[in-house]
Amino acid sequence: MSRITRFLQLLIFIVLLAAVCVGFTTYHCQKDERFVSYTCAPENITMHFRDNDGNRIGNLKNLKNIYQNKGEKLLFAMNGGMYNPERTPLGLYIENGKTVSEINTKGGEGNFYMKPNGIFYVDTNHKAFVTTTQAYKGNDGTKYATQSGPMLVIDGNIHPQFKQGSKNTNIRNGVGILPDGRVILAMSKKKINFYDFAVYFKELGCKNALYLDGLVSRTYAPSESWIQEGGRFGVIIGVSEKNN
Fold first, then answer.
1. Domain total for the chain?
2. Per-residue CA distances from 154 to 44, 60, 119, 161, 202 (Å)
3. Domain residues for 26?
4. Domain check: are 147 and 108 in the same one?
5. How big is the chain by its Cα radius of gyration, in Å?
6. What is the pLDDT of residues 142-192, one digit of tens each?
C-alpha cells in the first residue's frame, strides 16, 4: 500500500469521524445534568388520554402496563399538556386523527393563557410541528395534537414575557423541534425559570418550543435511568417499540 493511499484512507477516516462528532455534539450531547431529555422521530410519537374502556389513563405506570399488554415496550413518556380540574384537556387535543377537545383561544389567568401559547402536533405525513395557537391551520391532516402554553421559543426568539434571572422557578417540561425535524422532549430535574428553560431549547437549535406543564410533571425515561411512574395527568406523550 502506497503512502498516498494510506494518507487518503486516513483523511477519509478523519472526515467521517468529524461528521459523526458534529452530529453527536448537535443532537446527542444535549445531555445536561439539569434535564432529562429524549429525542425521537415524529413517527414514534403517540398521545394518550383514555384507555380502550374509556377510563383516563392518568399516570405513566398505567400507560406502561397498557403497552406491555399489547406486547410493546414503553421507551419514554411524560405528561403532555395542561388540563381542567376533572383532568380533561384544557385546550386542543387530537388523538389518532380524532378531535377529543377543541382549540382554546380564550384569555385567562395562569401559564396556559400567557400568550402566545401554542400547539405541538404530528401530521399524517409523520412531520412534527410546534406553532403558536394563532398560527395553527386546523385539524385536517393532524394525527396527534396537544395545546399548552406558553410558547418557550417562537421563530428562534425567547418568549418576550420571560425575564432573565426570574425567581419564578418550578419543575418544568416541554417539547421542541430540532433542526433535522426530530422531536426533543425534556423535563428539568430541578426548579428552573421560564427564561432558562427556553434557552435550553434555543441552544439546541429549536426554532419553536412549547411549555407543557410544571410542578405536576413526571418523566419515564429508563434509558436515562430516570423512572417516574406516578402522576395525575390528562394527556400523556409516549414512545414505544414492539418486544422481540
1. 2
2. 24, 29, 12, 12, 9
3. 1-30
4. yes
5. 19
6. 999 999 999 999 999 999 999 999 999 999 999 999 999 999 999 999 999
